[in-house]
Amino acid sequence: GIYDAKYEPQQIPTNSVTHVIYAFANISSDGTVQSSDRWADVQRRSTNDTEEKGNNAYGCVKQLYLQKTQNRRLKTLLSVGGWSASKHGQFNKAAATDESRKRFAKSAVKLATDWGMDGLDVDWEYPSNPTEAKQMVLLLKECRDAFDKYAAANNQTYHFLLTAATPAGPENYKKMDLAGMDP
Q1: Residue 52 appears among annotated catalytic residues
Q2: By three-state DSSP, how is residue 128 classified?
Q3: How far is the CA of 51 from the CAs of 44, 65, 67, 114, in angstroms?
């Protein structure tokens, strides 16, 4: 990251990678997906930034966009959650009801598309029982539907990417409905 590691998005060797996953967006108590660090994400000025009028993105989001202009095949995904969000039960709340899943999906798609991302990575570590596994599948389906509706409403034929960070260890992946995640 940009803080302790002092690793900037413009340092990513984009000629050597196909995808960059930008982590993490937060999940609020009502299931809304939002920036976890607005200053770093869209406000922080880089040394090569010029002051522009309007509501412009700066920060890491702008730097990732500039990387995409240098490598048109580069895909960027916004990752939501991670260990911290998972251990505090934010995914459980966001995935619990049809209403909260819709709120999560709508806000995640809005944030990802506003930031020029090519998709979304859902990093729920990890569903721990059959109910949560089912809720994760429903959450992913809601996100897929929201991306497809966004594309249709904006006359886009682009198929936004949707990924899920899943565990490698059997003690966790056996609790997931992996087959249900496959459309």
Answers
A1: no
A2: coil
A3: 12, 17, 19, 20
CA 129 to chain centre: 24
Out of 52, 125, 142, 171, the active site residue is: 125
User: Is there a contact between 170 and 182 (Cβ–Cβ < 8 Å)?
Assistant: no
Ramachandran category for residue 78: left, alpha or beta (phi over 0 → left; psi -120 to 50 → alpha): beta
Radius of gyration of the chain (CA): 17
| CATH number of the domain residue 31 falls in | 3.20.20.80
Residue 155 to residue 170: CA distance in whole angstroms:
42
Q: Which residue, chain included where needed, has tokens 């984009």?
A: 14
With respect to residue 164, please indicate whether it lies within any of the assigned structural domains. Answer: yes
Answering whether pTM is above 0.85, one says yes
Confidence of residue 1 (pLDDT cuts 50, 70, 90): low
- Domain span at residue 98? 18-37+75-181
pLDDT in tens, 122-167: 999 989 999 999 999 999 999 999 999 999 999 888 899 999 998 8
